[in-house]
Structures are given as structure tokens and as C-alpha cells.
Amino acid sequence: MRPQYGNALRFDRVLTVYFYTSNADKLLQAKLMFMRHGYALRHYTGRREPYDEDYSLETRQLLDRAIEQVNAEFGVRSIFFVEDTSLRIEALSEGAADYPGLAVKEWFSSASFEALDRELRGKGNNRRVVVKSDIALYLPALSRKIFFHGETEGAIATSPPEFSPSAQYPWLTPDTFNGWFIPQGATKRLGEMEFEESLSFDFRAKSLSALVSRLEELNSALNIAPNFYVVRRPASPPVAEQQLLFKELLMLEDKPSQVLVVIGNKCAGKTTLSDYLIARDDVMVFEASSVLRSLASEADEQVETADDAYRFLCAHGLDCVAHTIAKYIERSPAILNVVTGLRTVEEVSLLVERFPRARIVFVDADVRTRFERHVRRARDKDVKAFVDFEKQDEQQARFGVLRVPTEIATDVVRNDGTLELYKERIDSLIATMTDKDEAPPQSRGHKSELHRTLNALRAIGSAATCAAISEKAAELGTPVRKYNTNRALKAVPEFAERVKRSEQLLSYKLTARGEALLQLLEKVDHFQSDEDRT
């Protein structure tokens, strides 16, 4: 399930929505679902359960009472929602009454798989179940609550779970009913699925998606032009509300915004990094592929493959996605704005131009490790063999960024060990962005061989042989051996065009994209020099 931003990031005015829950796993799942649709989700922080759960009530009654209790006890007048999960085990339910129903959490804590399995076999082995998720949304100006429902039918597995829990997505685990539950249409338990795979089957993902769709409608109305509505009375908020708003604006002004541009090959860990950061407050993630699909949809064009994407970018501007993302970041209230999946040098260059303090982090992992992750996730069923995976890498490299990731990166984060080690490395990276006592990225000290070669080629101003490029580099005070110029330029065909005429030596000519790369390298070097001086 790919992120679909729709109009979310284009809206100037967006409702602030809170999720009232004491369940950290539910909160993380909801944050990820919201962010994948272009919305940030806030949450209530308390020392105890935000509301009592009376399981004698029907679902909507329980949620309705929960909202009333939250409002009464905490004086909340924000837009917020609550969620409850229920379970119907068909063989143990009587008529319309679900068992264990809303008490699924308490029931599961004392249940054992073996005991349930014996009970089901004694009742004809009817293993059918329905897992339900219900949400109630509270809008201060609306007298009624808005309800959303999601459910998934399936069956209880015939054997206890033996898989390991997901360290990244803790609700995908053998330790809840997700470890016993095989959704209809699936061949494995919900808890052992990869996150993206689970979205089509997850009951809570369904109700959250319905909620986000309604918020899309509400935000659309919030952004409608003044000529489409009338104001029946003055809309000035009470003095107390004005003071609170002013205080919030001051708090935002005191927090400088940070931009983190994340690049890397497929399955290196870009999404893992952004999903890990989403769990924090004041983080917004912009996924380049989703923005590209939105732009293509507006242009009434299809973008299904890498070739489609490349043609679209060539036709509409190699930095068109970055232009759109830059506008989103400029309006973003987040303290940390993370951009993932940019593929052209022109895109990265534009963001560094607009946000000079942006950090470019290259998430690196061995190709074999990445292929193993690809096989495990089973996302692209057309790419099964390692050689096909390498071909896909080459397709992506043609966009430009992945030809030169270490050249343009201000930081490199390896993702070749455990998830916990990767998280520690991410934490260290973020610490260098937010903690003045942490060391800044190290200066390169000297230009790379490719950088020196491209500089020499630019100085020549026309097609030149490897010998001429080597001589010019030496004149510029940054010598490069003749053989090494050929090796460096041959690896980056997008940035230096090979010119081979009969009876003439091989020459290279700097392309427009090569000029763009040089400009980006100068920006990155300037950033690192500034960091060294601070």
C-alpha cells in the first residue's frame, strides 16, 4: 500500500487532530497511517488511562461515553478521536453478541492458544473470527460524534505462533491476537506480515484510513475560497483563545526548523529511518515518490515504473518534485522535516539551495543485505533473482543521486546490523542536528577525484581527452592521473558524456547535469566548511 498524499500537503489550513490513547503501539500505528497520507497526528499525554472502558455498553455507546469523559475530566476542547478494538470468535459467540467482544484485551491476557484450540475443536472446529476497529471523532462545533468502522474476517491458526515480533512495528507480534489470526485472503498471520503487506488486512488500518478520508473532506472545506461561504457573525475568537494562539506561535518561532534529506538504494533503510522518527513529536515526513505520483495525477499522466518516472521528470523538470516539497516544508510547523526518496541531483540541489542548513544523509547497506530484505518483504514480485535486483539498482542510478551518494552526502549511516544498532546510529545523527555540544559532520578536507575531474572538465569548457583533463586538473592545483580521470567519468554517464570519434582519442564532455552536480558539491562543501567554523 503506497502513501497517497492527495491534497493534504497542499492545504494552507489543516485541522489539528489528537489521538487519545494510553496504548503506545496504537499511537505509533496511527501516526504512521496519518503521515503516509500527509498529515501529522498529535496525542494526549497523561499518567493514567484517559477514559474508563465499560464493556457492558455497545461499541458506539462506549466510545461516545469515552469522549464525554475525556472532555469532562481534562477540559479538552480540541479535535480528537478514540479507538476501541473488539473480537468475535464465531464458535463462542451467541447470536448477535460477540465473544469476547470489547473485552478482547483482558480475555487475551488470560487465554492460552492450546486451551482455545481444544475448545474450538470440541465445537466442530469452526475457527472463523472477525476483528473490528471502531473510531469516534469529536469536533467541538458538532453536536454528534462521527464514527468509523473497519473489520477483517479470517480464522484462528491451527498452531501456535513461532515467529519473532517486529522490532520496528510492535503491533505485528506473536504476543497479541495478531499472532493467532490469519486474515481472509492471506496465507500467514497478521502479526508476521511486513508492515506494508499488513495494511491491506489490518482492521485498525482500515478504520484509520476511513478517518483520514473524512479529514481530507473537512480540510478541503477548511481551505475553500471566501466566495463560497458567508460569515453569519464576527469570527473573532475569545481573548483567552487569542492569547493561547499567540503563545503557540511564539513557541514555534523559538524552535528552528531542521531539514534532513535521506537518500539510499532500495531496501537500504530509508523508510525504516523515517518511520522511526515519526514516533517523535514535531516530525514531518515527505516521501518523494508519493509527491511524484500526486503531480503525475494532476497532469493526468501514468507513473507506474521507473522509466515512467524518469520520463515525467525530464518532461516537467528534474527538480519539480523538490519544488513541491520545498513549498510544503516552508509551511510545515514541524521542527524536523524529513525528505526521503529523492533521486535526482537537481532535486537535492534545489532543497539545499532553499534550506542551506539541510543535511543529506546516505543510508548505506551491502547489496546482498538489501536483496535479502527485498526477498523477505516480497513487495516486487517481478524482481526475484539477484541479477534482476542489480538491474533495478542500475535503473535507479540513472536518475543521478545514486551514482554519487557518498560525494553529495553530509552524513553516512550504515544499516548493516541489527535494528537496534541502526536506531542508535539514527539517534546519533539527530543529536548532531539538535545538540550544540555534539560534533558537526567532518569536513571532507579535499575534493574527491570525481569532483576534481569534473572541475577540470568545466574549466576546459569543451570536450577533452583524459590527458587534457589530467593536465588541467594539475593546473588547478588538484592533480588527477590520466587513467583515473577515465575511471571516474566512465562511472557517471549522466554527468559526463563520452565522445568517441573515429581515429580520435576518447574524450568527455560535461553535461548540464554534470554542471548541476558541481553546483551541489560546492554547496555541500560550503555547508561543511561553515559547520567547522561554528
Automatic annotation (TrEMBL):
This protein's record includes keyword Transmembrane: no
Keyword line: Hydrolase, Nucleotide metabolism
Keyword Hydrolase belongs to the record: yes
Database matches in Pfam families: AAA_33, Ham1p_like
Protein name: AAA family ATPase
Organism whose genome encodes this protein: Bradyrhizobium xenonodulans
